Amino acid sequence: MDTSIQxxxxxxxxxxxxxSALAAEYQSGDRFLTExxxxxxxxxxxxxxxxxxxxxxxxxxLEFRRxxxxxxxxxLIDYDLRSLVSFTEKAKAAGKKPxxxxxxxxxxxxxxIDDEIRExxxxxxxxxxxxxxxxxxxxxxxVILEHRYLVHSFCPKLTRTQAAGSLYQALTGPHGIEIAGAxxxxxxxxxSRGEASLLEVSSRSPAFEVTAVGYTRDARPLWWERTLYRxxxxxxHSRLGPVRSATPARGQLRQH
Amino acid sequence: MDTSIQxxxxxxxxxxxxxSALAAEYQSGDRFLTExxxxxxxxxxxxxxxxxxxxxxxxxxLEFRRxxxxxxxxxLIDYDLRSLVSFTEKAKAAGKKPxxxxxxxxxxxxxxIDDEIRExxxxxxxxxxxxxxxxxxxxxxxVILEHRYLVHSFCPKLTRTQAAGSLYQALTGPHGIEIAGAxxxxxxxxxSRGEASLLEVSSRSPAFEVTAVGYTRDARPLWWERTLYRxxxxxxHSRLGPVRSATPARGQLRQH
DNA sequence: ATGGTACAGTGGCTAAGCCACCTCGTCAAA
DNA sequence: TTTGACGAGGTGGCTTAGCCACTGTACCAT
Lengths: 256, 256
What we know:
Chain A is of the alpha+beta class and 256 residues long. Helices cover 29% and strands 34% of the residues of chain A.
């Protein structure tokens, strides 16, 4: 039943090398190893080297350029990852000026948070977490209300300034964390009066509620979040069908 | 900038053959052509044949079994496609008994429908469309309200019975249409009084509004739909990150 | 009936090599 | 000095020929 699992050890090693180097070693656009280099270094044939590369190309990690070489495509991945955590990029992409208000920033014991969340984060009651609440604005208009718990051990030195800015940058930069992805559940909900007031819409307005758990590259939970997106400002796009392209659903600021 | 576009003509032909045969020729689990057959038939090397097959495997269309052969995986694709059009499968998957009420079923001129929709369907004013409105129930509970326009020329002989049942089956079966996918936009909205009453929720309840255009394999628009999902019954899941797996976002009936 | 064995067919992979394509330096002409 | 033609060397694309590991089957001895 294995469809595309590459047992090819060359693929495995190159894959690890690329994915573990999210924060360093390879920049987007860098030349990658050539087929001939790989075949020599790993003592495999060029065909096998090509096959390993082809898999990585189809996963979007590399790009073939005939007659030139194979190149790293960190930009796309970066974009995907950034958009997981960072509202900033999405807003810019929609041509809006992003800003942020840090409404809550404190450290607390895991025993004080919801059991369900603590379990999702695989924490013991005496572990610690960061609690953040941020209101995010596009062109001064509040559009996202975000509540997030971060596993403290991953980023013990998180500062208020970092928390108010790009969390993605703070995590992947100084703390050297490699974010792998997130599991999301998207629901349609009504905003409570408090939420509505913060988002400056009338009470009981529709909104997207995204509950997500983010993971590091070695599959350890890194954060839990519940984020509310103003329904009148956000829409999700997806392209379904047998063509498994590189465009999963993603929230976008409306551009009307 | 082409990441994984296969210029390989063998890949192209095999791909066409597999995708166009969604309704016939290949059953799930069937043996596909062997590398040696392909290399002979297309006058290419076995390595090239393997590369073409490997691409199709990574797309989920085929499955390699070492020492045995290559096999067709129609089931997965079918499932994806069915879930595009067919509420029935999703409901069954959630362990609910699906049923349906056909509230509207008529033929009308394209000039009478919204300009935006007519353009999305690439129709002239004197073309014809089917208009359908269906209320879909899970275990007797109304959960989806669906409004759909179908391009008449694709399925001129659509019957009321077919429209009330599985549209996917009616389109891909008798009419031999090959559905390729759909572009969707998902919004969070409030239900109008009429919609809420049909879905048996209180007025101004939250809901997902999915607006989608479905396409045939040759990229011609086949339908336009606006579908409302009860917010208290549906949630969307997605797994984001650099691992481009085969799990795009898809609405699911909650199973609480 | 059972179990071992040889065989033929499969995809996985290697090896050596030609081709089309691209970059970049060189060198001649303007 | 600038421009353009040319070619060397490197790249991925693909071929050819062949061995290997794995699988199912048919056969045969027990």
